[in-house]
């Protein structure tokens, strides 16, 4: 009762102030100037009282601006005027288009507690004046183009708790004083060019919980001090040049959940104190020079999900006790010197999805329980000393995607049961063993398999006709066996080089030179005539082929030369600063009618100019490229985090060509590619109407015209494209409205479809989180499974439907803390809100028919975004439901 009166009083007071001082609001002048300056489309100004503008928070008593929070509003302009807002405490302009220098005048905002300018295009140095921000607790300058070092003046910000400067071009070393910031909880400076040592005192006085310095040029040791307070939760030092050993004191950090120190030069053994870190979830120390044995103490880390010690010098046995790790999903120790039997206990880890023991000295035989209870998807045991037979129970590994058993001492036959592993798609490799007997025809059921290698064994008999059931096959190797008969007529076989079939006893037919007709020894004259006739044809044919090849090369060179001349002359005319373009290694255009119109060098050059940049996705950056021929292309530059391009170029090119043949009106297929240095560029048609995200969120408000039928038809098109992908067993890695493109007639095409096959996050240094897709679209189960699945795709598509229905972003702080679009929509009934309050009123109020269709689509979207993957409909069903919505 007592509290009612004062609060009523202060409300009255505030109203009174508001009423009296309208004309002379304290920040009127700077806010009016700012409104004029920030010409983005995303900021809504209503009325003259700036306190009611979106993103502005005022002090309730004197109406001065206390917070300006406008993240991701497509804003640009000069922000130096903000330094006039003397009472401001929080300034968040992240994810906009601001460029130029960070205004030094911001340093005069003595009350500022949070400054977030991340995700813009700021360049130049970090202004030293920011050191005057005595109240600052959180400073985020990540993902800009800042250069130079970390200014020493910042040491005066004694209360700094979160300091994030990752993703810039900063150089210099990490200053000592960072270790003296007593409140520091988060220090994130990854992806810069920082060098020197990690300061000896980092962490001694602070409350450090997160330290992320990956992808710099740091040297020296991991200082003990980092672990001294024991509060560290996440430590990422991957991809530096750190030496020395892993400090024993790491065991002090009971709450450390993620420890990632791969790709350095660390030596010594993993300290046994690792077992004291009860909350350890990820341990990743691959590509170092670690030695000694795998500590049995890992078994005490009951939450351990990923253990990666690949490419080190570990020796000894895998401790049986590791079988106690109930949550283990990935166990990767390839390229070490480990020995003993394939650890049977590990196979009892119910959640194990990847077991990689390749390139070690494991011996003994394959266990009988190999897949009794498991969710195993990757069983990689190649290049070891495993003997005995392949147990038929291998057929129980129904979830396997890849089976590598090559380079061992396996004997006996290939069990026909392998044909039951219908999911097998990446590879089946049994090469370099002592296998004999026939090739079981059951393998023909593996219709998703891409690569089959049974070379260098003692297999006999024919290649079964049923192998033509392997519809996805791209790579085959049957060489060096004792196979007989004719190679079945099957495109993947005849497209292979002869070396895939060489070294067999009596194998004949295309692509081998030995023709099969000569097999019949009792053949009559006629037959002889026929075969010699064939020989003559073959000789003429190959001569012709050589001639054609030579001519094509000559023609290509001439064209290239001409294009170069042309490019040079046009450069001179335009008086452009000539950009030294790197040497194109290879390139191809799949669409014949466009071959002449694409110039690879212009493609490369277009990606070197920032002004051509169109969008920045999870896996690629898109540029607009205008060819000398006038053709306009969209060029995607892959972010090759794991150096996929260098290591897997040929495989990648084949995958691309496969996608080039994947024709569906609602899929954006690649029309070609260019490769230079270690960069891969994918060529796509340029679609004039941009992306669905732009249509929904960036259309100027005053030009907006409600068009529900267009949105509905976009939804149906995308659903159809995605359903087709699922039908051919391709999972999309990044469904979002930014990857849905609109052509001149607003037909929708789903893009980024090829990424799933090009970037393999399971290889190299890419973190598991690199596959997660875009924020707000990631299905909740991803946190546990770390696997993108078809139901996961359905979820992401459901988020797109909600975006279409609500015209809201998938994540936005207006929903409240920790609430995204999905939670906000699903929570509506609980808040007593009707669907009308959720859907975009500009559409739903136009006609009864539109409203009805929107309500029906909302139902579909709710089903798609169900928390439980098993409850979500299949894409095919979603298409049916959406077509029903249209007809209703
Ligand atoms: C408004 O009030 C706050 C808190 O009382 C104070 O810090 C600030 O300086 C005042 N601003 C103006 C312009 O009076
Ligand atoms: C922004 O405006 C200030 C003062 O109005 C000026 O000094 C400064 O040069 C401008 N900055 C840019 C990048 O135009
Ligand atoms: C700071 O920036 C990084 C990178 O843009 C982002 O991931 C992080 O969430 C930001 N932190 C805060 C507190 O805004
Ligand atoms: C750091 O980068 C700046 C700007 O790119 C450059 O001028 C400077 O020489 C670099 N310093 C060092 C020590 O490499
Ligand atoms: C930490 O690990 C070491 C080595 O295994 C052990 O001797 C020590 O008792 C452990 N400390 C705690 C607090 O558990
Ligand atoms: C293991 O993870 C669960 C779920 O994240 C958590 O509740 C639990 O406290 C963790 N266990 C330890 C020992 O940290
Ligand atoms: C395996 O993972 C699931 C989540 O996918 C989790 O609920 C379960 O506790 C884990 N452990 C076992 C032994 O199944
Ligand atoms: C592997 O270990 C064996 C004995 O355990 C040793 O003889 C051999 O040199 C080691 N090989 C490597 C490459 O370290
Ligand atoms: C496997 O290797 C270990 C260690 O090198 C050896 O002790 C054991 O006898 C070997 N087992 C077999 C079956 O060869």
TrEMBL record:
It comes from Dendrobium nobile (Orchid). It is a single-pass type I membrane protein. This is Protein kinase domain-containing protein. Residues 608-888 form the Protein kinase domain. GO terms for biological process: anatomical structure morphogenesis; plant organ development. GO terms for molecular function: ATP binding; protein kinase activity; receptor serine/threonine kinase binding. PANTHER family: LEUCINE-RICH REPEAT RECEPTOR-LIKE TYROSINE-PROTEIN KINASE PXC3, LRR RECEPTOR-LIKE SERINE/THREONINE-PROTEIN KINASE-RELATED. The chain crosses the membrane at residues 535-559. It is found in: Membrane. Residues 1-23 form the signal peptide. Pfam families: LRR_1 (PF00560), LRR_8 (PF13855), PK_Tyr_Ser-Thr (PF07714). The keyword Repeat applies. One of its GO terms (cellular component) is membrane. The keyword ATP-binding applies. InterPro entries: Kinase-like_dom_sf, Leu-rich_rpt, Leu-rich_rpt_typical-subtyp, LRR_dom_sf, Plant_LRR-RLKs, Prot_kinase_dom, Ser-Thr/Tyr_kinase_cat_dom, Tyr_kinase_AS.
